[in-house]
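Chapter summary example.
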Amino acid sequence: MLIDNILYLNMKIATYNVNGVNGRLPVLLRWLEETAPDIVCLQELKAPQEKFPVESLQAAGYNAIWHGQKSWNGVAILAHNTEIKETKRGLPGDPDDEQSRYIEAFVNGIVIGCLYLPNGNPAPGPKLEYKLRWFERLQAHATTLLKYGMPVVLAGDYNVMPTELDVYKPERWIDDALFRPEVRQAFKTLVEQGWTDAIRKIYPNETIYTFWDYFRNAYGRDAGLRIDHFLLSPDLDSRLLAAGVNRDVRGWEKSSDHAPVWIELADL
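The structure predicted for these 268 residues follows.
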């Protein structure tokens, strides 16, 4: 990977599963205006390539690259008044995989991998098998990224609750594809390559959720899940200053069932 003009800056990076970028565009634009992240990873665009709202985002001050898909999936990276150099579109390892779940770019001296990992339900079955294969491909690509020796952030909706601390009433989720032992082990194996789970580094023992279902007043009861994660390469671990969840955004009218998650990185 040939990268030039490396520029390290203090920056705020966010990830947000928007659950339909066009239908929830007012929410997205309001959140961008109020919080002003430098880099944003979006998932579940649910829009074909030509329907991505690039003009609206540019008007808000954000450049964008995106990998769309009609009705399903879709990922994007936004950068506030900053150049984005796309480095990869689609996760390597399966040339027949047509689902739009991974996009990667170089922004302000950091490689940003934006991902939307498969849900895997119903489990067991073909969807869980696809999820585990996708995890294996992610593990392989993550190893390659670490070998480059550059700062890397892998951010997005991983569709996994790593521990019981990350799920409301874990006993109810034992057989779900987001919490099955083999899925949690796949996430653990990925992290043990040397990645830092940013939220858990800042909040090692606190209950932190990033998703609340639309049903049964889950948000009001705080019956949530932590499935949106930041994994940081070893050279970014010491630069992590802060992390959090914009929980209130989940309560906005016509909002996604996810809330934005963010980290702040210090300059070198």
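To summarize the output: Residues 11-265 form a domain with the Deoxyribonuclease I; Chain A fold (CATH 3.60.10.10).
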